[in-house]
Protein 1
Amino acid sequence: MATVSMEKQIDPITTQVIRNAMVTAAEEMRLTLVKTAYNPLIYEVQDFAVALLNREGEMLAQGTSLPLFLPALTFTIKSGLEKFGTGGFDEGDVMLANDPYSTGTHISDTSIYMPIFFDGELQGFCANTAHWADVGGKTPGGWCPDSNDVFQEGMIFPHLKLYEEGQLNRTMMDYIMANTRFPDLVRGDLGAQIAACKTGVNRYVALCEKYGAETAREAMELVFDQSEALMRRMIGEMPDGEWSAETSMDHDGIVKDVQRKIKVTVRIEGDEATVDFTGTDETATGPINCPLAASRAAAEIAFKSATLPHEPANEGHSRPLKVISPEHTITNPSWPAPCDSYGYAALIIIDLVSEALSYAVPDRTVAGEYMLFGAWFFRTDPRFGKPFIYIDPVDGGGGASSFDDGADGLIFHGDGDAPNTPVEVAESRYPIRIERYELHTEEYGVGRFRGGMGTIRDYRFLTDSVSTQVANEQTKCRPHGLHGGADAGINRLWVRPGTEQQEIITERVSFYGPFVTNDVLSCRTGGGGGFGDPLERDPERVRWEVLNELLTPEQARESYGVIVGEDGDGDPVIDLAATEALRTERRASASA
Amino acid sequence: MSDKRLAVDVGGTFIDFVLLDEATGAVEVEKEPSLIRELPEHIFRGINRLAVDLSDLEMIIHGSTIVINTILQEVGGKVGLITTQGFRDVLELGRGNRPQVYNLLYKPPKPLIPRYLRFEVPERLSYKGEVVTPLDESATREAIEKLKGRGVEAIAVCFLHAYADPGHERRVREIAAEAFPEAYVAISSDVTGEFREFERTSTVSLNTYVMPRIGAYLSDLEHRLADGGYQGALSIIQSTGGLMSSEEARHLPIRTLESGPAGGVIGAVALGRKIGQSNLIAADVGGTSFDVAMVLDGRPFEKSETTVNERPVLQPTIDIASIGAGGGSIAWIDDAGGFRVGPLSAEADPGPVCFGRGGTEPTVTDAHVVLGRINPDLFLGHRMELDVDGAAQAIQDKIADPLGLTLTEAAFGITHLADTNMIHAIRRVTIERGHDPRDFSLLCYGGGGGLFAGSLMREMQIGQAIIPLNPAVFSAWGILNSDFREDAVRTSVMPTSDLDADQLLALFDALQEQLEQRMKKNAPGAEGMRLIHMADMRYEGQEHTVKVPLPPPDELRAQGIQAVQERFDELHQTTYAHSSPGMPTELVNLRMAAVLESKKPELAEIQEGSGDGSAAFKANRQVYFKDVDDAMDCPTFDRGALGSGDRIAGPAIIEEWNSTTIVHPGQLLEVDAYGNLIISEVA
């Protein structure tokens, strides 16, 4: 009797069933992690990733999470395999790794992984990485903006076995708990990370029981091949060529008067693509260095968005993409250079690769986006009340595309699906009052399509002794506009606006304050870069923005060469003839 | 007036009618195409086809899709918004998250109220409800005048922390009633008493957006019914499965957002009670979608928030997961060469290839036809003859040849992949909530329920599947079981340790008053309202809450607040797989539901069968099961002729006028006293 499961060559039905089961398993790992975590960075800010990998460390499937972490998990497993070899793992082992030079991100992102065994044979790995509440180090909660080697950033776990064959290494656990500022949170999160891995192991083993380990492997090999072929076709459809983009960072956190350059060259040759970081400055003194795995991850995000943004990611998609970075550079630093602030460089790389790709696929890319910005409020002195830390993801503007304006008020693309904190929730939790939350109608790049707008959020303190840490970048070189669109704006923190003690902060600082009751801080994020010549903007879009008080008639004339008048009801109308005349004149003087 | 009740359930393709004679328990069913544009006309036409005099009807219950369609198609009214100074962009900015993490081009949907129709007025409350800035009434009048000048027909009002004190919002409504009496007005504190300003603004905006349309629709329908002699009330199904009066539905239409799929779940609860099944997975297999919900301890699992096209709605809603999988789901080969089924559907028009109405893409129904599982002559009770050759040709050309499969392998693959899509939806509603699907029975209804029940239960190792009587109109039968229900919520964040049992109960007083007033409008003079107290709780410092049902007031007083904490620990353990007894907890939202029970339809027992179903045997047919090279000789039976106690071993096919049930080899079918088909595994 011939049934659908064939012997040698795997059939397309089983392949699809196994592929779906892998994606579902990864999704269940994600759920386990979110629902059992103790730390708001996991269940609110969603600063984590989960994945299933094969025994070569290749990505089988991932759960929805921070995209930057996912290719890093591949690198993590591969470096674990390098250390232990395929035979170095046993059933029930739980591995712990956070060394940036073997995980690819920064030290707070701690990876937990478990080998999957079936019939006594290694099948693959379940892995996740999550931003721990604290890994020791000089700054509570991580993110030290001014470390000058990796040792200052926290405890280093170079692929350690926290459990060996199911047996907990108590000494190691005690050591970790003694060296973190928030042992309860860390213990809870560790438990959640291990539970997530176990969920994945069980699902994979169930799949092997049903279809056989060999079939599961063959099916995923076929899926890799299909995904790779598809990616090659997408790249093959791009024109061959070489395009570069570069920018400079404000400073490295230690040496404040030197701007460091990041340069990206994208090369398309047939059905292969190369991202080359040659030309990037050498390793920085401060922690803005971005380990090679994260540099690669950032390049992959930009490629994935430009080709297959909706496909569940797997190893096959990565195969046609080659990433080159010279050693001892910001994009490929060497141990023990500090890298705690790697996130800025990673986001910049996404924008630069997108910019270079915009010459190959202008309809699949966007201009530069507002840069990661945060003002984190904390009060540690118990004399003023219960200590708290309030991390509010601050949204800004996205880059414009060749066919639409950028998104207004969205989280930066490196932070995945993280939501902001509602005003009503924040006020019930922290001694603050938020007095304004609105679109920031300045500081975005104009263009035929404009960059998305940033936001303004005003916080009034209802207590004394609150301090803030400010995260910011790209205030000197701004995120880029494309094809004639203007560059994006910058993020600013207005301190006590409208008073005699008003200050405007744009630099990232680890400690600013303390503030007293009734002091106001205003976070004003930048928008994204524009796309195309502003003189080609559809006057109807301009009229709509004037009607909606996003633009004044003066700005319409100034930025877009559009003349806006008023009708009998006081609503804006376009004077098309005058607009055409002004635009013709502007074009003539520009070409002269 | 005789005791007759009528259920009118509007679905994506059909309006289903179920007429119940209370005296005899007899049920009459009818179907009519649901064409959005002329819905009242088609409803009326369907009623006329039933053998009933409108003046004999005691009650009409209506499950409606008008609210969700108005929002999805963006055909609601021109609406203005009045909000707290500094916050007019809340509706547009939302929570700023990016659900498509790899898509740099992602943009959220545009707000349904553009910025030039959103006005701010000076006013401000603290989260405790204290007035920080009083309402500026002249600015309010000015805003209303401007909105009037800009031609809006409805106004939504949402102020920060209005859940803590609705005074300012109510004052705006009074001013609007004077200055702009013809406008529809809705205030956020009436729609929900829950915090989170974007979600509440979104909810009241959507509510206001659909008010003009639903007002016109209900008036049209009620006039037609009154002209036809109907003297009873028109009740509408809410997203909770509870009933509300049409008058309430005009003011708070957003509460009927998920009215459509709720009926089947209410039916599942009622049927489960009758046959002693309190834990059910209720699965509605339609032409285009697969809707699945969990019934736990005899109650539907509810959520307090839902979304429609990424727009949040804070309203209690039966927790239904819906995916694009059903008989009409299209099989295709993706760009990478992978074999896929759905989520695209051939829908009712043109429908599957076998319908012969111009469909060219192979669907799941076509696959079942090719495998011999659907009787080509009996589809929809002989109303339609199926084109078997056309279905086979489409599968051969579009799937089998490109993938190098035989025709039957490809057809089997299509049904199998449709199964796996449905299984993922079932896993989502159970496992995500901390439950194992194997602890449930699977109730499958909708036109396609019987086609999938046997294979789904086998794949998921579920012990038992149930296909109810008249599965294709089960949702409409379900809504005849609905009770009147009102819900209210109030955010009140405080440590649980600050309260004793009496203080906790006192917090519910205002909610109870609100519910009593509203219930009077639904059912004037009715007695015996049952109250359900619930509290959303969390450990201090957590974000996510767990909804804790509270014991009745007397028990709560006797047991003390400690019992509530313990119940919370327990539920936290079930939901999140861990708990921390002894850790300080917080109260976040108080929820209350008032339920007024209605009379339930009786289930009639069917006559006893011969034991082996032989009286219902029709013929043998060649049907493919797992062995795709060899069709099996499979007996077919007429469902209408089966009697209670009949047992039939698979393989077998049970046919009725609008549905087919497959019993796979190795499975056993039993007919229970009410005519439900119960499938179990033999070994």
Protein 2
Amino acid sequence: MSSRLVRISIPIWLTAIFGILMLVEFFFPMPKIVIDTNVTLRSFVTIVSAAALILGTVILTIAHVRRISDRKPEWYYSIIYLISFAVAAALGLISVRETNFMWIYNNMTSPIGAALYSLTAFYITSAAYRVFRARNWNAAVLLITGFIVLMMLIPVGAAIFPPIVPMGEWIRSFPSSAGFRGMIIGTSLGTIGLGVRIYTGRQKEHLGIREEKMEGS
Amino acid sequence: MLALVALLIIVAAILFYMQRAFSGKIPNLRRLPAVDVIAEILGRCVEMGRPAWYLFGSTSMTTPSILAPTVAAFQTLAYTARMAARVGAKFFVPVNQGLAYTMAYDIVNEAYRAEGKLEDFDPLRTVMYLPAGADRMYIINHMWEEQVAGAFFLGSWYHEAVIYTENAARVGALMLGGTDTTHNIPFMVAICDYSIIGEELYALGAYISQDPTQSSSLAGQDIGKYFTIILILIGAVLATAGISISWLFKM
């Protein structure tokens, strides 16, 4: 088979056929065999993702080993990675439900994740400072509406100025909702356009393919 | 059934404009400012001798709402990586999901190959897999360490949008942010120097593709917009008049 057929035509045809199959299942009642096929196909996604995860982990490990061998700055942190990886992988291979593995997850992985997540609050504060400066007319509108909604949400706001509550609710229910819905409609149309371009084979960059390169090869 | 009819009308409009493009009739499209911004950011990075980063946010491609913006961001990645290779900008693409990593790797590798700069592509560094969760500290730390001069934040973004864009802003990076995740659009607009919102994320990829059929599809999407505006106006009039057409949606 030619290189073009394998690298371009087959992936595009498969994408189009299976994509349309999923679409048809959404709109019409389908025979059990079609539904079962679609369920199996969806499970393939999980399997492919898992395989890609292994590939990613191997590459990450190679990068750290290379960092140690090249004695790059702060290379010793890579040793911690390798030790952590080896311990977690060994315990996970014994059993993911084994107490030691779950201890690592519950007492190390999970708290680190939560701590990082909590950083968001501080960054939002500094981002708010960056935004809420009335540099121009648009920023002034944002500052005023943001202030009203903020005052509505905190108890002291209603205590100081009771009409702030209906004002804030009006902003959230009408201008804000209308803007968001417009955004969602636009995004949905963009997604449909993206789907059509992919199914017709016009857009294929996500496959790592550039047509003019293939023609030259 | 109504949803199917609406979908078919929009798809037909897109295919109509794509077909017209084949026969050489290209519609006039407003140039997205973001197209010029990509060159500006990469040019700045080259001048300053500092890297440009391309970040995706959440890339869990098994989630439909994340899949579409990620694929859209991949198309812009193909263009950006190729331009980075051409102008000689240091380019770094961290990805936090295995499947997206393999795709991003292929895209960037192909871009460098197309520009004849494969020697500038580091297989272990240019596109790097950073497991979700652990990626945040690496990205924050290295943004400061490498003094990133330019950053692209495109795709599906959640809480990490604020963390990364704020750090990039403090480092002094010139930023282009774009997402269709409605609750994070405000942060992108507020913090980034340039932003694309909602459907512009999808339009940007088609616009920069230099393929007339792809860019023409945007005109078809506009037909969908007009169709939606008409429906909204009819709905508003009917609702104001107290006429219910809920039976129509039960078909």
